[in-house]
Amino acid sequence: MSGELDGLKILAAEDNRSSLGLAMTLVRLAGGSPTGVNNGKEAVDAVCSGHFDAVLMDVQMPVMDGLQATQAIRDREATSGTRRLPIIGVTAHALPEHARMCREAGMDAVVTKPVDPVRFGATIRSLLDSCWRPE
Is the pTM above the cut of 0.85? Predict the structure, then answer.
């Protein structure tokens, strides 16, 4: 698993403390540099004030959920002309309509909980490689 995310800055938005810890550990094990936030509003603020290569966005969070946060990030990209930031939705719901809602909100991919640690880094790396190259 080591090396798939070498040098990449990944924002993890997750309201559950243990799930956030797991996401950040998986990013580190894959060679990435994680930053964690606790809700969608914090995710939007972090994206506006920092540089990230991708976002892991929990769908259900307080204050602002992952769908609303993703839409806010996409709206900001559209008005500012910044590059499209890859956003991976993370949800406990595996039904097709949940994945559709995530994509309609602007998420590029959706993974279900529990996240498979073996495939985690490779899945993110594959998405990043298909979307863009790091600057």
Answer: yes
Residue 4, in any domain of the structure: no
What is the amino acid identity at position 59? V
Q: Tell me which residue range forms the domain holding 60.
A: 9-130
How confident is the model over 20-61, as pLDDT tens digits?
A: 999 999 899 888 999 999 999 999 999 999 899 999 999 999
Inside any domain, residue 135: no
User: Domain for residue 42, yes or no?
Assistant: yes
Burial class (CB in 10 A: 0-12, 13-18, 19+), 74: middle
